[in-house]
Amino acid sequence: MFVDKKLSGVQCVQTLSRLNRTCPGKTETFVLDFANDTSEVIEAFQPFYTSTELSGETDPNKLYDLETKIRASNLFTKYMVDEFCRMFYSERHSDEMLQPPLNQVVAKWNEIGDPEQKNEFKSLIQS
Known about the structure:
The structure is a single chain. The chain is mainly α. The chain has two domains: about 1-50, no CATH class; about 60-125, no CATH class. The protein contains six helices and two strands, in the order E-H-E-H-H-H-H-H. The chain has helices at about 10-15, 40-45, 60-70, 80-90, 100-110, 115-125, and strands at about 1-5, 35. The protein has a two-stranded parallel ribbon with strand order 1-2. Helix 1 (about 10-15) crosses helix 2 (about 40-45). It starts with a strand and ends with a helix.
């Protein structure tokens, strides 16, 4: 995406929200350039969300740290993720086939007895 003018209000929200839409064949989203600065985007989203968190460019090390913490939860394995992805990207599988692997993770999630541990994991996933 290349946006050569400043966007505001609903126009900004709609344009950026469309980046997350999925469709067959769409595998990546890439923003080449964007005229707004962070504060303008936050202001545009404020009426629609109770909190908007943007913090400049993404630090890849932070992503790897989050991934390591999420994997340490042992709610899923690399094999489970690989199998899920194989089914997700296979044209032969329906969406109903994706539910059993997700149910396995939910079952493990429900086994966590400590509410604080659940909240910490939820926070990591949202990050």
